[in-house]
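S.,

As promised, the iron/sulfur cluster run. Input:
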Amino acid sequence: MRITGDLSKCIGAGQCVMMAPELFTQDEDTGLVVVLVEEPSENQREAAWAAQMACPTRAVAVTETSTTDAAGS
Ligand code: SF4
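Predicted complex:
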């Protein structure tokens, strides 16, 4: 899983930071998103998806980078 923040779309709404403060912060000067953790751990997945859903401009992109995840049943 990989998180990216598109600064050309970000409007500094801060929803991503509210949903996942461990993964995102905002630039002190511009207010735009700063991705703190580009490759979140397994237990950060839900927060990452929640942040993507919460972003009003779809600036947050979460992509699965299927590694060796054994999905189980
Ligand atoms: S929620 Fe979206 S628009 Fe708001 S700060 Fe985060 S990335 Fe930027």
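Residues 5, 10-16, 26, 33, 54-57, 59-60 surround iron/sulfur cluster (CB under 6 Å). The chain has a mean pLDDT of 93.

- D.
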